[in-house]
Amino acid sequence: MKNIRNFCIIAHIDHGKSTLADRLLDATQTVSNRMMKEQVLDSMDLEREKGITIKSHAIQMNYVHTDGQQFTLNLIDTPGHVDFSYEVSRSIAACEGALLVVDATQGIQAQTISNLYQAINHDLEIIPILNKMDMAAAMPEEVKDQIIDLIGCDPDDIIEASGKTGMGVPEILHAIINRVPAPKGDPNAPLQALIFDSVFNSYRGIIAYFRILNGTIKTMDEVKFFNTQKVYHADEIGVLQLNQVPKKELSAGNVGYIISGIKTSLDVKVGDTITHVSRPCQTAIAGFEEVKPMLFAGIYPVDADDYEELRASMEKLQLNDASLTWEPESSAALGFGFRCGFLGLLHMEIIQERLDREFDMDVITTVPNVSYLVHTKKKELIEVHNPSGLPDANAIDYIEEPYISAQIISRSEYVGSIMSLCIDRRGILKNQVYLTSDRVELSFEMPLAEIVFDFYDKLKSLSRGYASFDYHQIGFQPAKLVKLDILLNAESVDALSTLIHQANAYDFGRRMCEKLKELIPRQQFDIAIQAAIGSKIIARETVKAVRKDVTAKCYGGDISRKRKLLEKQKKGKKRMRQVGNVEVPQSAFLAVLKLD
Could you check whether 373-479 and 483-594 share the same CATH topology? Predict the structure, then answer.
């Protein structure tokens, strides 16, 4: 055990984590030249296209130290975007050390701080690394001062490196061996292993990834999962390199995988403990947090017959992404589907994209919203994830909405425009700290609903990409909210309903109607698009009917002949309107997110 090191890499998005991981794999010759490619651990097409890490990836490296000793290094590469912070929390729970990677051209960013605090709370040994030192825009002295202010280390502790050129990689490997503590645990104690991830394989069932805290596991042992009490045989155990490498036994301190022919996804819960049936451990491993979704949206199959297939796809996806939560629901307009909880808008976009690519599912997504607490006049408390679940207006006493504490780090020249953006979104400035002469940290309290749609994009464009953003939920506060309905030909479309602050309702309703007018195709009859609060109509647009020129055959003559033909056409249009259906295209549901 003294020759095992478990560590993860934490950093803000785009600070060069995956590239640095490639260099570590090169230096330890874990991946052959033939198999090597850029960002080798990012296995999903989506990750490679977007240039971001979505999933944590575990890989084992064997390294011979300068004194001739052989070390086993277990690396877990983590995502950097705020929407995937749950993945980071799971990686941190399985490690003793963390490489804190900071971009020398950009300095400390909000997500770096957030992930760092998680690592410190788990008592991880932090190794600060200054990446991208080969770039002309690098500011090593300035960024070193920021790191020293943040974690209070010595300037000599900070390793200068470059993921592109491989500079500093030997020093990083030495630091991992000398500074990260070896895992603690007793190989002879009852087995205690923490599941930190799982994947679905259509041939072999569910493969669980675990970290052994105590005990030893061997092939064909009879094991059980502590929380679900399900018993299985360990058909195959092994370690994770670029491919899975089977082993006869694994003992305390190791990271590995187990294949035991598990068919149902409910049997494997991330954070569960694996133990032996014959000699079980007394307690499960504690300290694993439940995921709290920030954002809710309905996902419905385009074809109602695909409902069961969509359910199976969601189960498989949840195995691979434990931060996705879902439950069945139905809608008058869209039929049967699922109410899903996401950690943010990017998370939702990724899930939608993965359903399409990995499972070939064609889905419609409703307008995302956050969860609200409704206090009724009968002193009942109802949690509402969906505007259609709201009680009647006269039964509601007051509504509370979730608030977040947001941290924004930016260049000082953009402070004015960032402040006005946050205050427009009902934000309250709580604190303003200058980290250096030209970098400022702003702390705001604001409603979660206001940042859900396009806040992040606006922030990036206002600050020319320099501002970084991190947030966490702090509780609920009362708010003046109203339910805004969209009516097509006097019928409500529940997939387009939203709960919105009273002050923004008129403007939002008008923009919705204008947008839908562009997107809904013209029919044989007039379509009235209305925005309503209760029974009060606040905005209206009309999609004009496609009309045939019925008077084309009249050359001259009395006007009454033309009028008679037009009246006849008008009656037909009126009758058609009573029986006609309005098809709402998928683009209309998505356009609501991008109203600006």
Answer: yes
Q: In this structure, what token pair is assigned to residue 6?
A: 């478990």
Which pair of tokens denotes residue 516? 């839908």
Question: Domain map of the chain by residue range?
Answer: 4-179, 192-276, 296-368, 373-479, 483-594
Report the distance separating Cα 518 and Cα 526, nearest Å: 14
Answer for the pair 302, 589: CB distance below 8 angstroms, yes or no.
no
- List pLDDT tens digits, range 278-301: 887 877 776 566 667 777 888 888
Contact 462, 596 (CB under 8 A): no
**CATH topology for 4-179?**
Rossmann fold (3.40.50)
Per-residue confidence (pLDDT) for residue 532, from 0 to 100:
87
Give the residue from 241, 269, 226, 221 showing the smallest Cα distance to 74.
241
- Return the biggest CA–CA distance within the chain: 108
Q: At what angle do helices 140-151 and 110-121 cross, to 10 degrees?
A: 40
What are the pLDDT digits (tens) for 156-168? 888 888 877 888 8
Nearest 10 degrees: CA dihedral of 40, 45, 51, 57? Answer: -50
Q: Domain 483-594 carries which CATH code?
A: 3.30.70.2570
How confident is the model over 265-290, as a mean pLDDT? 74
192-276, CATH topology level:
Elongation Factor Tu (Ef-tu); domain 3 (2.40.30)
Helices (H), 163-210: 169-179
Q: Of 230, 237, 222, 234, which Cα lies nearest the Cα of 267? A: 230
pLDDT digits (tens, 9 = 90+) for 509-561: 888 888 888 777 777 777 788 888 878 888 888 888 777 777 767 777 778 87
pTM of the model: 0.70
Domain 296-368 has CATH 3.30.365.10: no
Half-sphere exposure of 214 (CA within 13 A, CB side): 16
Question: Does residue 588 surpass a pLDDT of 80?
Answer: no
Residues in the chain: 596
pLDDT surpasses 70 at 579: no
Residue 122 confidence (pLDDT): 78
